Amino acid sequence: AQSVTQLGSHVSVSEGALVLLRCNYSSSVPPYLFWYVQYPNQGLQLLLKYTTGATLVKGINGFEAEFKKSETSFHLTKPSAHMSDAAEYFCAVSEGGSARQLTFGSGTQLTVLP
Amino acid sequence: EAGVVQSPRYKIIEKKQPVAFWCNPISGHNTLYWYRQNLGQGPELLIRYENEEAVDDSQLPKDRFSAERLKGVDSTLKIQPAELGDSAVYLCASSLGAVSYEQYFGPGTRLTVT
Fold it and tell me: How many CA atoms lie within 13 A of B2 on its CB side?
């Protein structure tokens, strides 16, 4: 069975500082990995995904994540936080050849301080 | 292109009452998902449809929950009777069938059971 652990339910950073949101996964087969963002009272929006190939993936809004198989990690980073980045972020894993069976982590609430 | 549409956005009911949620997926998406998102948690899959067939309903509490997608487009999720523990956000998502790397989420219905 697959699972996702997001370390830190709340993360606060200052505007302009590095954003680092941690995600570790468990999967019995090579995983597909995803980061979603959820703004208040909205649905989830895909930030980026790793399926195969290059382990450093770039997404929208300046975010990127690196798949590290040896560490079973897929941490999300952004070099410089913006106030508009404040939201909840979910890491998700899928086994098999599609995103049809997603297992989500419990989320990390990102606060950006002025 | 219109996104995934859900209604109502908010619903407050008393326990033991019935409630229904409606979802219209993105045009052409033949895979539809219903998720439940409890406060402070990631979404958990309730049921997945491929066209009008429910192909994964293992997490749907069948004693009180039911879902349908009669023509392979719109879908309805019903709870009868509702319990206090059903208070959550119910999210609908859709994706292209076969191999698809992204699920598109609607804004959700926030259910409060009193």
Answer: 9
